[in-house]
Amino acid sequence: MLEVRQLSKRFGGLLALSSVDFDVNEGDVFGIIGPNGAGKTTLFSCLVGALRPTAGQVRFRGERIDRLTNPAVVKRGIVRTHQIVRPFRAMSVAENVAVAAYFGAGRRRGADAERRVREILERTSLADVAQAPAGTLTIGQLKRLEIARALATEPRVICLDEVMGGLNPSEIVGAMALIRTIRDSGVTVLMIEHHVHAVVGVSNRILVLNFGEKIAEGTPRDVLRDPAVVAAYLGDATPALEED
Amino acid sequence: MKIAARLLWLAAAIFALTAPLFLERGPLNDLWNLAFAVILASAWNLLGGFAGQVSLGYSAFIGIGAYTTVLLSLKDWNPFVTLPLGALIAAIFSVIIGLPAFRLRGPYFTIATIGVAEAIRVTASTVEFTGGSSGLRMPADTFDFNANYFAMIGLAVVTVVIAAWVKRSAFGRALAAIRQDIEAAEAVGVNSTRFKLAAHALSAALVAIAGGLYAINFQYISPASVFDFRLSLSIVLMPIIGGVGTIAGPIFGALIVSTLQIKLLSIPALRDSFLFVYGGLLIVVMLFEPQGFVGLGRRIGRLVHA
Fold this sequence. Notes:
The structure holds two protein chains of two kinds.
Chain A: E1 2-11, E2 14-24, E3 29-33, H1 40-48, E4 55-60, E5 63-64, H2 70-76, E6 78-80, H3 93-103, H4 110-123, H5 139-152, E7 157-161, H6 169-184, E8 188-192, H7 196-202, E9 205-210, E10 213-218, H8 220-225, H9 227-234
Parallel strand pairs in A: 3-8, 3-9, 6-7, 7-8
Antiparallel strand pairs in A: 1-2, 1-4, 4-5, 9-10
Helix pairs in contact in A: 3-4, 3-5, 4-5
Chain B: H1 2-18, H2 25-50, H3 59-73, H4 79-101, H5 107-126, E1 136-137, H6 145-168, H7 170-180, H8 182-187, H9 192-218, E2 220-221, H10 223-226, H11 229-242, H12 248-265, H13 274-288, H14 292-305
Antiparallel strand pairs in B: 1-2
């Protein structure tokens, strides 16, 4: 469904992404891990058109999307969340989500948009704060608002950038459950995550980046045993694999 | 409360539209001036307030509207028929400026708009068909006070209604999203360039019509009058003093600024002090109530209710 070929992004003298290749299949929960500065967020930015790749191609359902603008990519059904949350602070939570319902792939209006917003607020446990200004939310709520806004664009692929960062253990369990319901609703998930346990718990495939290069790709089990991954990223903290 | 406020606005509109029946020329002229100011401030607010794109080049659109009206009237057009054409030219021009200028963010955009407006003023003072720096005079017998009065008041009402509609519409939500975080807006599918261009074109068109009416009213225009940078400056001051991004703010701002201007201009010793007074007001607003008079009103409302 999503084909990434030889994708590179250069910022001046820094090669943030270096000829990265991978495929994401419909229905995947595709985890992306790697140390800080590995190029994970840059990869998302290139996928959705927020950054233009220096070289390489991104194809979505056969169509090249690497030269499209971010809104154009959203309209085709790929959306990303932001690691550092970016709510529209002066708007209410419901208005934040409504903007995405209006201008996402669904292009909904009026009562139809309102219904969709209510549904998504329920799903993301934000219904209680629907009328609160987004600027007053807790970090856990803001992370959910990022997801809610992305869902409101009615994506086929959602790119979650560290939605579990800063959450407490019980919130992480909730976030994992939410990601599973997103997958079960037919949306393909790409997720950048530092909580290795969480990624392993919900992903069926994992890509590992280090200094902009792909160093491994495969099932969680294989990837975590890969010596290159252990050396670059996991170190001594290699988690014991849990049976699902 | 909401209904009371709406009735109040309706009453104000009806008062302004029926005023020629019972008011003298003097106060009617003041009302005309106020309507002119309301149009400029409310239209600027569409882009500057709702979308947060602060332009200091709006005199360009007044001038385009004014010159279109005078030049075509000199070719025997009915002045009122020239107004939509001026609006169209200004809208097209706003897109031509906007395409490159909207690639700039924040203060860089603002500086670019000053540059463009000044370039137009200098051009209009140099080229021949605009009459150069000595300007142009409307043909004789093209002024009818009542027609001009109703047109200006009517346009002010239309502008405020458009602003209220935009604010509540999906278009307005897109502009608010752009103002608050342009990258986040793009990330949820808002094509920021398209909406900024649309807001710019809509406000440019409204301002250009007001510029055309200005030309009909004063019967004489020159680059120094309609392309004046101080005009651009007071267009920005009105919404900021009144309450940027709101519907009522630009109206209050227009009321305050145009009243002050009339009072100050009538005192010879204070004639040239109005920029000093505006600057002072601006500093006070920025320091104590960034939401302007509307914000101040809301604050008092909360105190009363508490």
